[in-house]
Amino acid sequence: MVIYFDLCYLVLGVAFTIVVSKLLKRHGSYFLSYIFPKKSEGSQSLMALMDLGFYLINFGYIFIRMAYGQEEFKDAHEMIKVAAGYFGWQCLLVGIVHIFNMILFSAKLPKRKMN
After folding, report:
1. Count of domains in the chain?
2. Least enclosed by CB within 10 Å: which of 9, 35, 74, 80?
């Protein structure tokens, strides 16, 4: 039963990573072009590096969980609870990194005058 869990977790984790990465890339490229309006090559390069970092964090987390998270499951309900915990921690980790990046880049936003 553990091998099925690992395979399902791997497939779902990779799918989750790809979907969230596409969303972040779509909306993040607009945000970076707004922050760096005259440096489009630089913002594209930064977006590619952030995308790479996102993949490395997520895949690293997935592989570490698979390597060290060898639980024995009594039933499918317990297996689903463990998987939910794994994905919950993965979402939390990505969310913290995302908020940290947003705080850093918000400091670079052009200052607008209030009317």
Report:
1. 1
2. 74
